Amino acid sequence: MRGTSAAFRRFEPVLPWILPVLVIAVWQLLGSLGFISNRIMPTPVQVAEAAVRLTQSGELPRSLAVSTWRALAGFLIGGSIGFLFGLLNGVARLAGKLTDSSIQMIRNIPHLAMIPLVIVWFGIGNEGKIFLVALGVLFPIYLNTLHGIRSVDPGLIEMGRVYGLGRGALYRKVILPGAMPSILVGLRYALGIMWLTLIVAETISSKDGIGYMAMNAREFFQLDVVVLCILLYALLGKASDLMAKWLERSWLKWHPHFGRPHANPPAV
Amino acid sequence: MASAFRQAARKSAGRLIGVPGDGPARPDRMEGPDGPEERAGPDRPAGGDQHRRHPDEHPQRPRADESPGGPGVRGISVDLHQVTKRFGNGPAVLNGLNLSVREGEFVAVVGRSGCGKSTLLRLIAGLEAPSGGVILRNGRPAAGLDPSARVMFQDSRLLPWQTVEQNVMLGARGLGRKKAGEKAREALRLVGLEERARDWPGVLSGGQKQRVALARALIGNPRLLLLDEPLGALDALTRIEMQRLIERLWLQQRFTALLVTHDVAEAVALAERVILIERGAVALDLAITLARPRVRDTGFAHFEKRILDRVLEPDDDAAGAQAEMVYEI
Fold it and tell me: I need a labelling partner for A100 at 20 to 30 A (CA). Which of A116, B50, B63, B195 fits?
């Protein structure tokens, strides 16, 4: 039993990669043996070649940079607005009464349905993409911030009052940390929506970015580039997921799900 | 001055009945087990509390061997006159309750569940406002929370995202970070948890969490400690340990303590006076005249039985209801 668990621990970091590597190997094998036509699906080696070619020409890094910039800008704008409204409505009853039902109504409009309108408003440049990403990201952050703040243990807030915490200290020390697990769930969800929105927007109407690269390649039937773009999305999604996990681990150290039992923060 | 006289009287009375000088027994209140119910209102001498205005005027630790009522007593007095509390349009939880607790006194409040004992504590803490009547803390009408009062709840209410040490430091607001850290470590040493200072509260046991909560309550040198069934959720052994700890710290620091509990034995073990609340008012007010450290001997059993008998004494209407219940079973 002990031996099994030791072996398990040693191979644990490798485990998540077994399946993807296997899929790629089978895919390459089927492609090389001619079971899958290269006209329908390029092999992994061809995709890798395309990646090298586009990196050397500078097109891939440029597209990546443009898309990442749009994603982050939209995320920051939408996330801040959602967070601020969530905070405000969670704290002030009046603000909640005034704005919550309007926000809920807007939330139920599929934001991608606004693409035609956005093209008319902003054209096919950056602004439209950023607007759409911000709109998509706003709601998960808003909802989870609001929910997190409302579900902070009232006993802890009462304790804070008994121990003389002022309003500011109460938010900083009790309410925000208490809402943090929920806020981070919203953040993780928002990161997914961020890429999804951007890719759809870039694919439908754009003059640069990864989505444009994929659509452009389709015009010239460069399937290797199209597949490369799709794989890039997977990697970008994974990267933002890792970022969210890292945030959870550093901000929720105290939480039994995320942290280690011993804190050892710097002495205060 | 009147307080000097009282002090002298206590000393001599203490010697007469062989109560150790450092004990909290209050010889001048030796009403005995009988007849304390008809006690008059506040019997504090006017102006007798010389540190009323400046809670931090005496930063030195009060020594245990100072006599009760002397300069070692840091506690404040609490007086309630005809206090009524109802929630919304419901029935009165407390109904014309009168109670007066003196500086440095340890009072336990017992009663059946739902009798309003926790409400009483929350009113004194300032967490709720009374619907009627007057609450005086240290002779002054209570308005809102008192910075010199601390509450210990049944659940420890530690912030899970702060370390044990940071949680304790919460009780030492107003001090610099360094000073607060020092005091926090000292308070943790007092409750025997200095090694867990850097841990998250989530990894502590229930008893350890309550010890941290106690350290947090005591670090600010409170003058009034309100304990709302703080040991209710602990196992029997941990409870006894905690009771001893609370008793020791009270003897050292001489704050006024008000303990709400459903455990009569715990009330007798800790308090100088046990108050029974029934139908929103004080139904029994009993001075516990046992020497400390208290052992569970016949004297102890006597007090415990007296209180329990009174608690279990059926009301007229309650008796009727009980008879019906028996029938149905």
Answer: A116
Ordered structural domains, chain B, with CATH: 75-146+269-329 (3.40.50)
Domain extent for A208: 43-251
CATH of the domain at A116: 1.10.3720.10
Tell me if A3 is assigned to some domain. Answer: no
Within a domain: residue A224? yes
Q: What is the CA radius of gyration of chain B?
A: 20
**Yes or no, beta carbons of B198 and A262 under 8 Å apart:** yes
Is A260 within a domain?
Answer: no
Quick: pLDDT tens for B1-43.
Answer: 444 444 444 444 333 333 333 444 443 443 444 444 444 444 4
- Which regions of chain A are under pLDDT 50? 1, 261-268
- Backbone φ and ψ for A51, nearest 5 degrees, come out as -60, -45
Interface of A with B in 200-259 (CB under 8 A): 252-256, 259
Residue A116 lies inside a defined structural domain of this protein: yes
- When CB atoms are compared, the residue of A158, A162, A256 closest to B150 is A162
Burial of B252 (0-12, 13-18, 19+ CB in 10 A): middle
Give the A window 127-186 contacts with B, CB below 8 Å: 153, 155-156, 158-165, 173-174, 177-178, 180
Predicted TM-score (pTM) of the model is 0.73
